[in-house]
Amino acid sequence: MQMDKRIRFGRWEAIMLITNLICTxxxxxxxxxxxxxxxxxxxxxxxFTSAMALLFYFLVMSLYGKFEGMxxxxxxEAGGGKVLRTITGFVLGGALFVLAAITMxxxxxxxxxxxxxxSPLSYVMGFFMAGVIIAGLLGVESIVRHNAIVTxxxxxxxxxxxxxxMPNIDVTNLLPILGTGLKDILMKGFYRTxxxxxxxxxxxxxxxxxxxxxxxxxxYVAITASSFFFVTGSLVYTLVFPYPTSxxxxxxxxxxxxxxxxxxxFQRIESLFVFIWVMSALVYLSTVFxxxxxxxxxxAGLKYARPMMIPFAIILFSAAFLPVDLLSVxxxxxxxxxxxxxxxxxxxxxxxxxxxxxxKRAGRGTKGR
Amino acid sequence: xxxxxxxxxILILAYGLIRTVSYAVxxxxxxxxxxxxxxxxxxxxxxxxxxxxxxxxx
Amino acid sequence: xxxxxxxxxxxxxxxEPEKRERFILRPGARPADEEGSGSFExxxxxxxxxxxxxxxxxxxxxxxxxxxxxxxxxxxxIPVNSDIVLREFDITYGCRTVRAFIIFFDGMTNTEVINNxxxxxxxxxxxxxxxxxxENLEGYVMRQLMPHCQVNISRGYKKAVEAVNxxxxxxxxxxxxxxxxxxxxxxxxxxxxKPNNEIIIKGPQEAFNEVLRTNCAQIRKRLKxxxxxxxxxxxxxxxxxxxxxxxxxxxxxxxxxxxxxxRLEGISVDYMLDAGELEQLIEDSTVYPSPQVIxxxxxxxTAELLxxxxxxxxxxxxxxxxxxxxxxxxxxxxxxxxxxxxPYVNLLRYIRYIAGFLALLLPGLYVAITNYHHEMIPTDLxxxxxxxxxxxxxxSLVEILLMEISFELIREAGLRVPGPIxxxxxxxxxxxxxxxAVAANIVSPVLIIIVALTGIGSFAIPNYSLAYSVxxxxxxxxxxxxxxxxxxxxxxxxxIGSWSTxxxxxxxxxxxxxxxxxxxxxxxxxxxxxxxxxxERPDYLNPKKKRKQAEYSMKWKxxxxxxxxx
Lengths: 369, 58, 566
What we know:
The structure holds 3 protein chains of 3 kinds.
Chain A: H1 11-28, H2 30-38, H3 42-64, H4 72-114, H5 121-138, H6 140-164, H7 182-191, H8 199-202, H9 214-240, H10 252-259, H11 270-299, H12 309-320, H13 326-358
Helix pairs in contact in A: 1-6, 1-9, 1-11, 2-3, 2-9, 3-7, 3-9, 3-13, 4-5, 4-11, 4-12, 4-13, 5-11, 5-12, 6-11
Chain B: H1 3-29, H2 33-56
Chain C: H1 2-12, H2 39-52, H3 65-75, E1 84-93, E2 96-105, H4 111-123, H5 137-145, E3 151-154, H6 157-165, E4 168-173, E5 179-183, H7 212-223, E6 228-235, E7 241-248, H8 254-265, H9 275-282, E8 294-296, H10 299-307, E9 311-315, E10 321-324, H11 342-371, H12 379-389, H13 396-416, H14 422-439, H15 445-460, H16 464-502, E11 504-505, E12 508-509, H17 555-558
Antiparallel strand pairs in C: 1-2, 2-4, 3-5, 4-5, 6-7, 7-9, 8-10, 9-10, 11-12
Helix pairs in contact in C: 7-10, 11-15, 11-16, 13-14, 13-15
């Protein structure tokens, strides 16, 4: 990656990037998913999941120590040579692609439902795609900086929704306090650490960081910040919607925004939030897409990732059409991605790091960026 | 699908294909055989996937 | 045709990108071997070497006056060229008479000065006995016979010609293989007047004019700092337009100054006549809509930007001064922001951002809402809008394009129309836009309000060039709004945002200090902190001195009064 040699960015940008990646799903489905899993105790599950993610992250990072400043591909190469490097690259890139494809499909379906009901899905998706391609061609610098601008704005919008919804809160919705039971919270909460799957991007970031040692810190801060959004999101969602209603398969935060009414005049301001959602979705998609292409290209030993943007964009666009309908998308999302995502993000990465640590060649070029 | 849509699809695919294949050729010339093969695979997927969506899926 | 094929080939087939070294402005403290550090010393040595450089072979001034005469006549196409003046005369040196001539342009020089301080001493005073007979002719002319403050000795024709072309007077003396050039500029020019375009209520009311040195002086008289460096560079192979790079030596980042020097020296055009042209030749992105350079006609604003660590470029013959580097947010600042009190300036800033928002997005939002998001509008308002649109035969996109284009027409026509006809245009415009279009049911009254608000919004944007870019982008947003409502507009914003974040103005990311984040975001970017709180220069400029105020800039508040007890 000759082109990217001099590109660097700071800790704040990295934190915003990872936080936005993880938290976009709050807009999409996270609150509904927790409600489905554990009933009224969704917020507890969110808290448990976040705690688990922190623990997993801690475990993975404790293996990362001697590879400071290297991304996961270089680590894999240090441990298992070119073969492991290629495998890691393809697994990571593939995972990111699946995430991007599903999220794009989901977002497009939702935007279609909200504001463009008569347009075909491909038309709506075309707009997302256009944004993703432009951002991909402009490169990582632009994407990361855009994250640093959009994430705080999206956060502000999200907090406005939470505040606006306050009058609709009913505390009795929290009962029974443990929802469908402690077992669900713990078991499903464990699988749902998959919602942190986007941490994968973090493992590709270190060479870009101004201070490579920051990577560890970035992860911790991003997970903590995300857990705040997850917990508040599901808590407020549970407080507003009683249990059976909360499982309605539609944008949970949008549903909350719909309830906001400020006097007789401002009754339907949820459309305004379309701006925020589409913006954070675009930033999410472009980031995941860019890093997907970057990872795969790097694993394949290509010098430039840029020429691969267009073919991969076409693949992404087609892949997003593979699920037959919205319900199958939701099924894939909930039963595959959010159940087994942890296997890639934490288990696979952990294994790669263990392999690299065990590899005889680990000493070679640990600092060699 | 309308004629316009077809034209769009074909144009985009053709453009992507030509450019990507030329990148593969460049890689081949610069002694990155594996990378070149990988790009060609990506090219095949790039054509196959839309074709599957458009023609073979009911 | 071959051009089209070449372009097609370029976009269709992959070519390895050219390796271009991108300039990134990094903090001033850099290792000595890197480019940029110590560049000031290097520039100093370069200038010194340049001034001492021997002329190229064939360019040397001859000691034979006839050869010089023929050469100069040849260079200036005398006698075809009618405004060049070549005056031959004799100088008395000791007991012999020496032939000499001067050459200058009529109209560009002050003949009074030439008569009294060049010709008279040489022709008349030289008759008087020598004070120091030991002195040679060159020293005698230079030290005793030319009582003029700016005389240079040049050994090559090229420098002499350059000086004459820029309002100088060259003196050739027989037997001397040098020529004397005196700066006797005296062309007519505009005086220092009130700014025409950047009007403010409080603060200095002087603008730059077209004279390079007057403009430099305008800045120097404000800053009164010997560290303010005015570095001259000639741009244009033929026009040799003098440009000055201004910066404060102990504030501005040296790498930045070096980059500006590099860009100016790297311009290869025949003629460069105005700052507007120079701006286009040095900016980072040609197609990006908004300007990446501040072009101002106010010396006070330039001085303030210099103090913050930026660099100004003055072009001779242009009343606009370019200041770099800038960020997107600087374009929303007005020179007046410094001169009015903290609460007012913040109010004005908000209003400007609202204005920018309206000018950019309002028509697009209108199209989006009327086409896709009816539910957003409260019912009563929706009824009012729909009722007013009922008789309009066009879809809202056509309606708004019609009005926007007429508005742009009026604006452009109003700019070009000769003064006396101006009011007529206003009447036509107001009638067409305001009355007739509505009465004829071509457009709805609500739309008139939209277009008017948009227009007012774009006038409230303080930077003239930015207003242009907003006007261009507005049409894009209208189409995006018509294509996909809010989704389209957001995608448009995302694309512009991506482009802006990828852009740099002279090594400074265009969206800093927000993307990337640097410190001082809440001092003078969107909001403006109180004057005493502006302690530091913008971080993204990486100036040599970070601080520009003491921590307690209002010492009187913290110190004790004289004679006051504890």
